[in-house]
Amino acid sequence: MSQPANQPASQPDVLIVGGGTMGLAIALELQQQGTQVTVLEQNFAAAAGHAAAGMLAPHAERLTLGPMAELCLRSLQRYPTWITKLENLTGQDSGYWPCGILAPYLSEAARPTALTAAPLLTAEAAHSYQLGLSQQVTGAHFYPEDGQVDNRALMSLMRIAAQDLGVDIQSGVSVEGFIQRQQRVVGLRTSIGEKQAAHYVLATGAWSSELLPIPVSPRKGQMLAVRVPSGFSQSQPLRRVLFGEKVYIVPRRDGRIILGATVEDVGFTPSNTPAGIAQVLNAAIELYPPLQHFPVEEYWWGFRPATPDELPILGAGPCENLTLATGHYRNGILLAPMTSALIAEQILNKTPGKTDPLLAAFSYQRFHADYESSSSSSTATIMPLSSPPIHLSSPATPMQIIDAPRPLSIEHDGLTIAGKTFHSRLMTGTGKFSSLDIMRQSFTASGSEIVTVAVRRVQTNAPGHEGLAEAIDWQKYGCCPTQQAVRMQKKRFE
What are the distances in angstroms from CA 318 to CA 186, 212, 324? Predict the structure, then answer.
């Protein structure tokens, strides 16, 4: 049983925010290695893992050769051992089925090159691999190493196994923010009070950006299930997953068949829609016509955690004791074994720089403007600010990162430039302001006598920098390389 939220417990070694696929998989891996883990979850049923189809399809997905393909293939290789261990721990069946995936084509259009050298099957061969396919099928690829797992059974197994191993799962807990000090997380502000641990993991999927400024957003998917009717000639006529051009069809051995899925950029808009379900049904029946006679059993929807490049965010976070494991988009179930292994290794590794080099490709820093090089920055020095501070209204939502106050112990006599002494200076960048107006208001509200703004050398109309040149009064302010900033300030006051 999970621990009641108000029951006191000793401080854990690792505190995981999020009790979905990644949170549970990481908790299991760490707990089995002797680490005491606490998992905070707000709503277990809302986890994307419950709404998935459970495909293990790195080959059928035809991933481009590179870090993502390597991550997926290494995770697929781990699956048999990983799933067997879970089943042995719980005594329950996960529905793991290495049935292979057949990818039929309904047209003669040029077919994409697969990740592996899977042979192209003729139409006759495709129909022999799976009876009942549409007569429009002109060929197919077959990926024998791919397969599936019953994602709902898997979620249940991971939760039971984690609890049996001693993971403290606290349900119904909402996390309001990370309390940080000097680039370390010193606590979590939650709906049941402050929580502390030696290390923290963010694994909240599509909701990750509510706690940290990382680019993870929801992609809604609508799905449904049909069931093979009683009295049908076979309890399950589909012998393998069908990965079509517009739909996937995932058979379960108990006669259930999963159909999916839409990909909708509609935020957290809930519910199934007639258009979404019709889209999936029509595509599925076009590929496998017998489905039109099977009774519909269930509809549902879920929210995939997507990033701008559709790759996960893994590894070290913005604080020394914070690790990120989110943004797995369409491959969360597949990537659970490898993600949990990589994250556990990163957390427990006592030798800096010795973690798996694969993690570097999935760092959150790849979305930062200065990730590739910091040498291309110039400095715009803005001074002085003579207008009174502006008190900005409080945001409508809670702050995502909470800075704990700390006393200032450094005493100084101010900065003297060209005979004039200044006692306050703000040094910042432009990348984290939602608008240029907010940037200007923030500078004024700081009350600083000097404001220095670091600006990358980009085209003035580059995305995210539109209007930047016009936002600065060049008759009053200056822009120059860093090494010239002091000389420019001196000249301004002569």
Answer: 13, 9, 9
| Cα(225)–Cα(239) distance, integer angstroms | 17
Cα 362 from chain centre: 10
The vertex-337 CA angle with 332 and 339, nearest 5°, equals 65
Three-class SS state of 326: strand
Numbered ranges of CATH 3.50.50.60 in the chain:
14-93+149-216+309-365
- If one compares 119 and 458, the residue with the highest pLDDT of the two is 119
Contact 123, 93 (CB under 8 A): no
Cβ–Cβ < 8 Å for 188, 182: no
Q: Look at residues 255, 122, 194, 212 and name the one whose alpha carbon lies nearest to residue 398.
A: 212
Q: What is the pLDDT of residue 369?
A: 76
Residue 279, C-beta contacts closer than 8 angstroms, at least 6 positions apart: 222, 262
Which residues, including other chains, have CB under 8 Å from residue 437's CB and lie 6 or more apart? none
CATH 3.30.9.10 boundaries in the chain:
101-144+218-305
Beta-strand pair 37-41/168-171: parallel
Q: Is the pTM of this model over 0.85?
A: no
> Of 293, 289, 292, which is closest to residue 135 (Cα–Cα)?
289
Structure tokens at 359: 């993690």
The domain defined by 101-144+218-305 carries CATH number 3.40.30.50: no
**Does position 62 have pLDDT exceeding 70, yes or no?**
yes
> What is the spatial distance between Cα 323 and Cα 407, in angstroms, rounded to a whole number?
27
Write down the CATH superfamily of domain 14-93+149-216+309-365. Answer: FAD/NAD(P)-binding domain (3.50.50.60)
**Exposed/middle/buried for 215, CB within 10 Å: 0-12, 13-18, 19+?**
middle
| Rounded-to-integer distance, Cα 151 and Cα 20, Å | 11
Length of the chain counted residue by residue: 494
- Residues 98-123 have a mean pLDDT of 78
